[in-house]
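To illustrate the input format used throughout this study, we show a single complete record. The first block contains the structure-token representation of the backbone; no residue identities are included at this stage. The design step must infer an amino acid for every position from geometry alone.
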């Protein structure tokens, strides 16, 4: 198991008998697990955390209603059918997690049970909540790749749990005792991202009074997680390629190379192969970061995990649960925001209800609000409210950058040329100096409004030091 896993508890398996006189149970008893008939199963589920229920479809009719009742207690309980022939495999219903052929013999049945339990333990070790086949495949991929030192690219939609997988890869590797450092590449402007990743030398730019170590330095010996790597600029991609090739990089403003030993795990919600075709992402960098790809499915493709996820989010409040009809409605929703959006729903129900049964009306109210939040934007985006909000903020920042550039161009246009310095009258009323100061004042005022009065952020955007900004605030009497 993983290096940071908790001690494994004894996993519980129930072999569900049929009527006592139907077939001799000696072969099932040989497996050495708890056996029970259906009437006793409900009580057993309440008293013990059952990991796996195995039933013989020729002897027991474990209906969807029975399965739902079991999983209301523990959504992670797996239900597998012991089938008499291969035709039953294709007839498996949604309430059954899988099929084991009875004619393979008791020894192979026991091996299959051990494999099921081992995969469940992997999911728990990596902090993955669910029992869907897609997430089991993710857990098995983590197990294969974590011990190596290969670069990993995690691909999945926003809110699907990419950083959870990145941490699992790190924690279960030989680097697990060393630093894990993460950064969202899409959240920073290219200049700031370069400084964050590679650090900077003293005096590299206005206000840099000392040397600053970057994340490649801080993650030395450990793992650096580059989230949303598909948002990086072409220039940044070149710099990343260099450090991934030989482990060397140059801090901003320094001519001396630094050396680092990091494992890079990257993530994206974009199709990078399409970005390569559009020349927005370097193919050589892609081959460096995607030695192994782990693909995370959207919640839409793992709906059997909705109930266990809700139970996980409500684990500290066992008095709150979902009605079957409410769960059916949740399962029919597309969840564009994935697990993050489901967590928002779970938190909302905790705040509004606290205890009792979450009903269809509660779910419908939430879904109506989600739809209204998307359609009330200037353009219907199909995104969650949170994702749409982030996008609006992003475009507002881009707009601010454009405004600053325009104002700077205006200021530059009004600056006197070299041949007019001697005749330039600084005190002339209504002259160039007056209009220049007005524009500078307006520029500072605009940036302060957009940064909500954050002087440090404003100084960064303006490209001046905080002390310089402070003097100008006093000069123009701006609070």
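Output of the design step:
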């Amino acid at each position: 198991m993983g290096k940071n896993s908790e001690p494994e508890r004894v996993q519980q398996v129930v072999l569900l008998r049929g009527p006592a006189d139907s077939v001799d149970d000696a072969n099932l008893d040989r497996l050495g697990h708890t056996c029970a008939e259906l009437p006793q199963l409900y009580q057993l589920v309440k008293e013990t955390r059952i990991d796996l229920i195995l039933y013989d479809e020729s002897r027991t009719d474990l209906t969807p209603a029975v399965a739902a009742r079991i999983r209301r207690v523990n959504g992670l309980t797996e239900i597998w059918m012991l089938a008499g022939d291969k035709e039953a495999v294709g007839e498996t219903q949604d309430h059954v997690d899988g099929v084991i052929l009875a004619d393979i013999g008791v020894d192979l049945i026991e091996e299959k049970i051990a494999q099921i339990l081992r995969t469940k333990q992997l999911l728990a070790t990596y902090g993955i909540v669910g029992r869907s086949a897609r997430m089991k495949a993710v857990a098995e991929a983590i197990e294969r790749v974590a011990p190596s030192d290969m670069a990993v690219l995690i691909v999945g939609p926003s809110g699907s749990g990419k950083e959870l997988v990145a941490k699992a890869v790190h924690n279960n590797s030989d680097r697990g005792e060393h630093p894990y450092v993460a950064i969202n590449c899409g959240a920073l402007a290219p200049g700031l991202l370069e400084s964050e990743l590679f650090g900077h030398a003293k005096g590299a730019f206005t206000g840099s009074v000392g040397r600053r170590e970057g994340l490649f330095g801080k993650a030395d010996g450990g793992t650096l997680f580059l989230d949303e790597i598909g948002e990086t600029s072409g220039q940044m991609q070149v710099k990343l390629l260099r450090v991934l090739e030989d482990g060397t990089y140059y801090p901003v403003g320094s001519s001396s190379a630094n050396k680092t030993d990091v494992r890079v795990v990257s993530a994206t919600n974009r199709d990078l192969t399409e970005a390569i075709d559009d020349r927005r992402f370097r193919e050589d960098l892609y081959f460096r970061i995607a030695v192994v790809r782990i693909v995370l499915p959207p919640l839409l493709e793992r709906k059997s995990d909705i109930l266990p996820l809700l139970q996980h989010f409500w684990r500290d409040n066992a008095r709150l649960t979902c009605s079957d009809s409410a769960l059916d409605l949740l399962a029919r929703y597309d969840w564009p925001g994935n697990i993050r959006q489901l967590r928002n729903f779970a938190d909302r129900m905790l705040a509004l209800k606290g205890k009792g049964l979450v009903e269809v009306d509660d779910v419908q109210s939430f879904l109506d609000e989600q739809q209204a939040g998307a359609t009330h934007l200037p353009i219907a985006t199909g995104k969650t409210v949170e994702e749409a909000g982030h996008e609006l903020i992003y475009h507002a920042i881009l707009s601010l950058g454009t405004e600053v550039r325009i104002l700077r161009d205006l200021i530059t246009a009004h600056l006197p040329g070299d041949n007019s310095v001697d005749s330039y009258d600084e005190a002339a009323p209504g002259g160039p100096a007056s209009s220049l100061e007005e524009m500078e004042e307006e520029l500072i005022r605009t940036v302060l409004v957009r940064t909500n009065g954050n002087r440090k952020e404003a100084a960064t955007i303006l490209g001046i030091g905080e002390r310089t900004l402070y003097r100008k605030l006093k000069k123009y009497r701006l609070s």
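Structural context for interpreting the output: The radius of gyration is 30 Å. The first strand starts at residue 13 and ends at 16.
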